[in-house]
Records
---
Amino acid sequence: MSAKPTIAQLLDEHVKLTLHSLDRIYLNGYVPRLQTAEGLKGYFLRARKKSIISPALLGEMTRQFNQAVEAFISTQKIPLVAFERGERKDNIAQRLRKKDPRRAVVVFVGVAQEKQQAFKSGKAQRDGRQVDFCFTRQPVCVKHYYFYLDDEEFGPCFIKVGSYFPFPVRICCNGHEWAKRQLQKEKIGYESLDNGFLSCEKPQRLAEICRSLGPIHLKDLFERWVQRLPWPLSAQDRKAGYHHELALWQLECSRTDVFERPVYGREFFEAVIRENIDLGRPSRVQLLFDRRIQKNTPGQFRTRVITAGVAPSLHVEYKHTGIKQYFKENRALRTETTINDARDFAIGRRLKNLPALAAIGHNTNARLLEVQRVSEDCILSPTSIQRLTQPNLTTEGQRAPGLRLTNTRVMALLAALCLFLHLPEGFRNRHLRAQVATFLGENLQQYSVAKMTYDLRRLRLKGLIARKAGTTRYYLTPYGLRVSLFLTRLHARLLRPGFSALQPENLSSMPQPLRAALHRVDLEIQHLLQNAHLLTKAA
């Protein structure tokens, strides 16, 4: 029977198309000058020339907008759908899009009651007599309009507009659908894989198109439909500076590896699960790391394998960011990083930051695959083991203390490093310290900053980690990646269960062949001792 291919072989030898692209993109639209009560009053005083600012003015704008939407629907003969609570809007959209396959139109308009941050008013006395109104931002449940579109550039997308001041907006589009429209304009043939690609006549050109999607294209999409749809703010308002700015709310960065045959995709997931399942907890299969979540834990780390039917998927979570890996349409490995908060990576949410966030997402996808490659081939040579465990001098003449593998603190350090394998921005002292303390069962006072600083120094001198220039962040070196994976796996698979099974009270849990072999060894040792005793007595 031939051996099954490794993860590296599957990715290097059996993938016919690899594509990096933006997938689903969610944008928030907001009017910067209308986010405070002072901004609201300034708008009515300057743009609307109102001397008294009352709730009636806000209500009138809502009524005018609702009437404009109703007139638009009636004139254009557009279907109107009232969304029920808990109903999947995407399913309805797919069904109605099939009925109306036209380009550059509003396919239908959906209506839903949803929460938004809006201004609510209260009365206040001014000069002892005149009544004034004060406004505060509060969550309220109001009508939202979903304009489901077929855009000439982006294909299927939607724009949601809240009907109450300050009229928040949300835009959803898909980078793969945008790439398809660009290929169609250039008359390049391709084969779809759901919303992605299974094949393309010019894969290099497809990759160039996917890389070119940027903020300008998204801004053009928004401005194009602001001119076509009924809008709560007039052209005069927008000219006066009261226009919506765009910010990134959610960004999906995908990598698609199309296999030559579907069986290779199944073998990929079998290999991933086989090589990493031992690091998990019984309640949830953990593939890359194992940890407990406590009050002093920075962010969240979680890895799960979910099986829907016969299709497994891998989920990794960090703070507000998630990585999902699954077998798309039984043909391709899809690795997706979904960034829900740009501030997880110390980057702003403004649309101009799209390239920086996309780079982080694509690097994270590549990092996950690299970890999966290394995790299957992380054997260390005797020389590496000796260099790790024995004190030595670095090339700069610094003394590097040894990392004894029987030491609980050392094993806690290596296990904690596994938590940060997939993070593109690395980790800081305080992040690693919290994890090591958790593994040691100590609080942060017991595992002090001084101890963490010492441990970081010896990890760095041993070449396991390195510091990013000009920062206080550290990252795992390729050697450190192999060491942390190999030794953590060795401890989880062999040392911990092995030493536990050797205890007299746990002998019944030892596998029968091993128990029988050890029993034979025990008898032979006793026989040898008896013979030695008899010989001594005879002498």
Note: The chain has 16 helices and 17 strands.
---
Amino acid sequence: MKKPSDWQDSDYGIGDLLGLGSQSVRKNYYPALQARIDELEQERNRYKWLFENALHGIFQANLRGGFLACNPAMARLCGYDSPEHLSEKVIRLREQLFCSAAEFDQIRQELLDHGSLSARETRLMRADQTPVPVAITLLRRPDLGPEVVEAFVADITERVQAREKLEQLNIELEQRVEDRTKALQDAILSKDKYLAAASHDLLQPLNAARLMISALQESSLPEQENRMVHQVHRALEGAEELLADLLDISKLDQQSMKPDLVETDLRNLLKGLGEEFEAVAANAGLDFRMRLRPARVRTDPRMLTRIVRNLLSNAFRYTTAGGVILGVREAGGRLRIEVRDTGVGIPEDKLQDIFTEFHQLLPQGTGGRQGVGLGLAIVERMARVLGYRVSVASLPGRGSTFRIELPLEHHLQAPVGNVLKGEVPATQGFNRAVVLVIDNEPMVRESMARLLERWDCEVLLASDELQALTHLEAGLTPDIILADFHLDAGQNGCEAIAALRKKSGMDLPAAVITADRSDDMRALLRSKKLPILNKPVKPNRLRALVTSLLAPVP
């Protein structure tokens, strides 16, 4: 084997080992090699230029130590003068570069487990000890060392600030929405209080007018005057319905109307309600039939009565020929109350619209007394409160059928009689029964007196508790007491009734008449076992109340 010193005298030299030993070899391979070397040098210079002039930070480091290399952008991002200065000062990434050692440990573990990590948001520590938010992409390089990594770092300060600003704007927006909502709730509460107060003030004169008109209707008047009285009665009735609708829709919107569920004789409830519309049917020349069946349901009688009354009112309002049927059916363990009419009907595309507020079935001027479009909205919302399902089927020109489905409690064992015990037919009087009326409004007292006197009652009038007691002191003991709740000087009818009962030593039959339709008022009077009659007082309901108060206790 030749020694290296012998290679100079041999047939081939060092050039042969490099593939350049002969002229032909040098001629064939050297230019290509030189070109490749030049390309590599250009590529190295390009990467060096990109490394030094990159906008984002680039570094190579050992996770257990510090930087192995870094570019100027990385030094600027961390607040150092140069890459050399950064490498010199930061010799432990965990403690000196990352704001959170725990987050660094998590990043390191992810790199050891997966080999790379992309666009991870974190915070690095600047030279002045202030944090800078960054998005860092890391690649593990086990070929250079067990924990050597290469990284690209982007300053995301503007992004984070924009995000924080957006979050702050969202917080402020939520606060504004909350403030506006609270202000709206306060405004609605104020509106409700105003409506309650206004309703009392409006219902007082309306109540007096209704009672006076009812007294006139029972008088013998010339035909023209009788027609005028009837027209005034219709106008007052419309005003009463509108006011009651506005109050109810307001309470339903605020979910302040709570059902008072009691076991109820459905047949009696619907029969009494149907009797209210017999006169309506007679005046309109329409046929009205009731197909009822004995049944008991657990319901709020007041709300169910309002639902069926509104459906009957609409049926008569939009029926000019034929008639209306109020019926009850049983199907699948549930009861179905139906109100059928032969009226104008409703187009299929309008069947859902009719349950929205202020939506009328027909435009003004198409016949019948028009409302303002609250009746069916109240039906739908009250039914929802009670958990009942309301449906409608209709054919234009042939009529409509409204149905309310409610659970059945149980059947009655025997049919209920047509007339309640103690009921007095409308054509008869009350045989000089003594009725004490307590009301702070002179006009209401006078109107009540005129109507009750026409029913063959003797009427005692008082504006407050003191005047009512003077009647007892004069030896005049009433058979029943009808007291307004809101009296002057902070007094109320409940207190007046209690004082009269105490003074007389008797449990005098009594009822409270009030314009307050709130659940609180109903609960208060229920606790005192006092019947309630809402203003404006309808004559037929007043007659029924007087009848029940005069009925002998079984």
Note: Residues 221 and 227 are 9 Å apart (CA to CA).
